[in-house]
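Write out the bound-state structure for flavin mononucleotide.
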Amino acid sequence: MIRINEQKCLKCHACVRDCIVHVLRPNEQGFPMVNADDERYCLHCQHCLAVCPVGAVECDSISPENCNPIGEMPSPEAMMNLICQRRSIRQYKDEEIDEKTMQNLIQALAWSPTGCNVHNMVFTVIQHKSEMEFFRTKMTQAMNFLIKTGILRIVYPNFWRYMDEIQNGVDVIFRNAPHMIVAASANNAPCKEADPWIALSYFDLLAQSFGIGTCWSGFALHAFRWIPSMRKRLALPSGYTARAVLLFGYPAVEYKRQTSPTPFLVKLL
Ligand SMILES: Cc1cc2nc3c(=O)[nH]c(=O)nc-3n(C[C@H](O)[C@H](O)[C@H](O)COP(=O)(O)O)c2cc1C
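---
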């Protein structure tokens, strides 16, 4: 529900121009308004609220007074360092991250862009090492089964190289990370595949700024698909599927320089 404060409104139509679904239109007096019939098309993106120069727009009971002001953006240099210095962390301190930092990371998830602004995602955050132990134990059991039956060699030929480590109890999947976040999206969400990856990419970069290391885990994702007890533990609502997994915690490794990755093919037209 969008409300316009006509006492404040300048009739500049900044909100009308920025409404992607055109539900905001000027009425006969020139005030922006939403037709009752159009209400259902509103994406609830709050662009109208954010763009209004005088704070005359309220959206879904959120008033401009309750919004955070615009803050300073990181410099391009700071962003380049963030991107170039992020490494996949596979050695973690045996330490949980503090609660306040965890809350900050979780809160920021809400700002992740999603297709059609559909917020049908569920994040399972493993907050404690003891809970990670559940997944680690299940995974070890599964890996040992795959080794014993010879399936590992057939399905994941490259993984065969880790066989000794796995049998000696080395956690080659979760890398002893103290935490993990699993992003699931509704099976009927318009961008169900992209949304979870984008959300965890944002989470990833924000985590670096708190000194937290991360590692994507394609293998954990496989495990959630194939091992029902692990999937069940995520406690996802029905109709949701886990689609992206990120391990995180304080790094026990320090990199002394940036890498020089092979550039992708970029076509400039
Ligand atoms: C989709 C995806 C899945 C990945 N899965 C795993 C994984 O299961 N285990 C792992 O150790 N690293 C995994 N990685 C991390 C990559 O191996 C890593 O990003 C790559 O080697 C480059 O290293 P860097 O991230 O330190 O720059 C994954 C990365 C992506 C993007």
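---
The domain at 2-66 is CATH 3.30.70.20 (Alpha-Beta Plaits).
The mean pLDDT is 96.
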